[in-house]
Design a protein that fits this description.
The complex is a heterodimer of chains A (100) and B (217).
Chain A lengths: L1 E4 L3 E4 L4 E5 L19 H8 L7 E7 L7 E7 L5 E6 H9 L4
Antiparallel strand pairs in A: 1-2, 3-4, 4-5, 5-6
Chain B lengths: L19 E3 L8 E6 L2 E8 L4 H12 L9 E4 L2 E7 L2 E7 L11 H9 L3 E5 L4 E7 L3 H6 L16 E6 L2 E9 L3 E7 L3 H12 L4 E3 L11
Parallel strand pairs in B: 2-12
Antiparallel strand pairs in B: 1-12, 2-8, 3-6, 3-7, 4-5, 5-6, 8-11, 9-10, 10-11
The chains are: A alpha+beta (100), B alpha+beta (217).
The structure holds zinc ion.
Zinc ion binds next to loops of chain A.
């Protein structure tokens, strides 16, 4: 499996560290629970629940033995075919905006 | 009574890189290794969003253009290698006629960055080897997943990657070809043994280390 690092070009997966689903978002304290559910529910989901799709998955990898950047890699879990890799910082800024 | 302890500098490859000819004894050596014991190394990591600021500050203060991704740049004997987004190794060979007095280099780099980057002294944290000789690419190919063919990798290019399963920063200094390889000192022994095994079939010459920092034996 080879991962196209947006900074370094294509590299073997042994240079990378896998973290997991790039779609999860850390809840804002205990404030995000919906009415009627326990305050800890968003944290339960954040820590434990993953969709585990058979197919296209967006996931976090770090180019730890290369440029050290965190990436969002799009991978098909059935074939390991990788269709893209983006800088995770850029993805996070586009999603959440710059930190206050 | 407490024993008085004194510390002395010992290069990452001290006791490992013993001068001589190893492996295949016939014909010209395929690989020549020299330990670069006199390189002062500063690691520069730009603070978030301040990469351009670091580049212009270093250019203004040191006359050095920090290199683009996967590249090295030089201003006289000062060399910089890209190691990641907003990250570089900036080096001066203190044996030559560098512009900064020996021992002052890393501090000068930190000064040049004006707080826009974290600058740490890696001089004794990394060991740098200079690899040359007709079979250098063949030696490296056995442990490196990077294409070093001239169509893909040329003088002036740099990469941080794995070599012999050890993390290295490698850059090509000329087209003969010559490569410099920086290895974290904790991995120097492991990398050295891999390099010796890989080069044995071509013959390996280890140049003598001529600096005090090479350490005894
Ligand atoms: Zn990378």
């Amino acid at each position: 499996m080879r991962i196209p690092c947006p900074h370094c070009g294509e590299r073997g997966h042994e240079e990378f560290l896998y973290l997991g689903d790039a779609g999860v978002r850390r809840p804002d304290g205990m404030a995000e629970a919906k009415a009627g559910e326990p305050a800890s529910r968003p944290w339960m989901d954040y820590v434990y629940l993953r969709p585990n799709p058979a197919g296209v998955h967006r996931e976090l990898w770090q180019h730890v033995h290369g440029c050290r950047a965190w990436l969002v890699v799009t991978r098909d879990t059935r074939t390991h075919a990788i269709s893209g890799a983006e800088d995770a910082r850029t993805v996070a800024l586009a999603r959440d905006g710059a930190p206050a | 009574m407490a024993e008085h302890i004194t510390f002395s500098r010992r290069g990452a490859f001290a006791g490992l890189a013993l001068p001589g000819r190893f492996g295949q004894a016939e014909g010209p050596a395929g690989l020549t290794v020299a330990v670069r014991t006199t390189v002062a190394i500063a690691q520069v990591v730009a603070r978030p969003g301040r990469t351009d600021e670091v580049s212009s500050a270093v250019a203004a203060a040191m006359g050095l253009t920090l290199p683009a991704p996967l590249r090295v740049s030089a201003a006289g004997p000062v060399v910089a290698a890209w190691t990641g987004p907003g990250r570089w190794l900036v080096m001066q060979d203190e044996a030559g006629s560098g512009p900064y007095p020996a021992g002052s280099f890393v501090g000068r780099v930190a000064e040049a960055c004006r707080g826009a980057a974290s600058v740490t002294d890696q001089t004794d944290a990394q060991g740098v080897l200079r690899l040359s000789g007709p079979r250098t690419r063949d030696v490296l190919a056995k442990g490196l997943a990077l294409d070093l063919h001239p169509r893909a990798f040329r003088a002036g290019m740099a990469a941080s990657t794995l070599c012999g399963m050890v993390e290295v920063t490698l850059w090509q200094t000329d087209d003969t070809p010559t490569y410099d390889v920086a290895v974290m000192r904790g991995y120097a022994g492991s990398f050295w043994h891999w390099l010796g095994e890989s080069a044995a079939e071509y013959g390996l010459v280890v140049a003598p280390q001529d600096d005090a920092r090479a350490g005894a034996g």
